[in-house]
Amino acid sequence: MKLRDLIVWLDELAPLELAEEWDNVGLLAGDPDQPVRRVLLTIDLTEDVLAEARSLKTDLILAYHPPIFEPMKAVVKGRGVSPLLYEVIRSGMAVYAFHTALDSVRGGVNDLLADVIGIADAQPLQSQGFAPEKMCKIAVYLPENDLDKVSSAIFAAGAGHIGNYSHCSFRAKGTGTFKGAANTNPIVGRPGQLEQAPELRLESIVPVERLKPCVAAMIAAHCYEEVAYDIYPLLHNRSHLGLGRFGDLRKPVSKKTLIETIKKNLKVNAVGLIGRASGQARRGAVCAGSCGSALRHVIRNNCDFYLTGELNHHNALKLQEAGITTICVSHSNSERLVLRHVANKLKPRCPELQFIVSNKDKDPFTWG
Questions:
Q1: What is the pLDDT of residues 197-230, one digit of tens each?
Q2: Among 135, 101, 98, 129, which residue's Cα sits nearest to residue 17?
Q3: E strands, the chain, where?
Q4: Are 124 and 104 in contact (CB under 8 A)?
Q5: DSSP type of residue 125
Q6: How far is residue 89 from each of residues 64, 67, 161, 356, measured CA to CA in Å?
Q7: What's the whole-number average pLDDT of the chain?
């Protein structure tokens, strides 16, 4: 399989458009046309992970955290922040990163954490709301006799595709008015007179990248001297997507039991605790990694239990003051369970590939 073909499946699993604006996701190193046979999944690209990838003859490293985050001025052996990336490229391997795209998508890391603590109907802590689509709507006004010619022109230029359907449009009848100047040559009526004419409104959707040729084809096929048309940017409802998750638990559970469940499922021996471990949890929230920006939503949504990777001191104090029992399991420990999940999702789609979860990817902290 070519890397570019695998990337299609990766983008379906965690669309890159869902990543935060500050993030750096997608193919970060490698040749899209290179063949891929073996894929190594890891949270971080470290020296140990790189050595493991080499020993396994890995073609692609799927990293949760992007190894290129800050701008880089050079990729030089043994110098600066780039030695690992230099060795990856030198070894002929590619690197692809998911990060916040996999945080926000349904079925991603935050939904897995929500399942761990038993949230019934998990909603994003920090919703993406409405976001620009890669499609727009075009509407044009024309006489009925022009309908077939103009619609055929815009369809041929790329308009009218919805999923597996083509030639999609909507047509509505109405009345157009106009008054041409002395130097005009209207199809209906005379210059200088206010005219009314039966017209159709033809509308269809078109990918943004095909908008310019679509408009050109529409105008060329239209019979009017001046073509009246509208272009509408479309918004996509992403209110069900975003960072973190919160909601009522399927049933009230003791916080001590919940903490033990977290340790077992995330394979950690120790956790950081803010607040009380006694009492029952009824409404929970989760956020993988570090989610300072989502913290106010944990408090605002009246959660009594919060699972995350890490917190800074002042955010920890806010949670303590709010009386919310909080568990910190360390940044990467809150994310690592997603690696096996991603591998299991990709195997049926790419049965010819071997997906391996790294044995060398570890939390940098040792917990005593």
A1: 999 999 999 999 999 999 999 999 999 999 999 9
A2: 101
A3: 26-29, 38-42, 60-63, 94-97, 126-127, 130-142, 170-179, 194-207, 229-237, 242-243, 245-254, 272-274, 280-290, 305-310, 325-328, 354-357
A4: yes
A5: S
A6: 18, 13, 39, 20
A7: 93
Inter-residue contact 75 to 82 (CB < 8 Å): yes
What is the SS3 assignment for 150?
A: helix
| Rounded Cα gap, residues 132 and 232, in angstroms | 11
Instruction: Name the nearest CA neighbour of 41 among 53, 51, 32.
Output: 53
Domains defined for the chain, CATH in brackets:
3-99+337-357 (3.40.1390.30), 109-128+241-328 (3.40.1390.30), 130-237 (3.30.70.120)
Residue 306 CA, chain-centre distance (Å), reads 24
Which residues, other chains included, contact 109 with Cβ-Cβ below 8 Å and sequence gap of 6+?
102, 103, 288, 334, 335, 337, 338, 341
Contacts for 223 with CB less than 8 Å, ≥ 6 apart:
142, 143, 145, 146, 187
Asked if 130 and 236 count as a contact pair (C-beta separation under 8 A), the reply is: yes
pLDDT band at 106, cuts 50/70/90? very high
On whether the CB atoms of residues 342 and 41 are closer than 8 A, the answer is yes
Tokens of 249: 């638990």
Contact (Cβ atoms closer than 8 angstroms) between residue 252 and residue 280: yes
311-349 burial string, b = 16+ CB within 10 Å, else e?
Answer: beeebbebbeebebbbbbbbbbbbbbbbbebbbebbeee
Confidence (pTM): 0.78
Residue type, 189: G
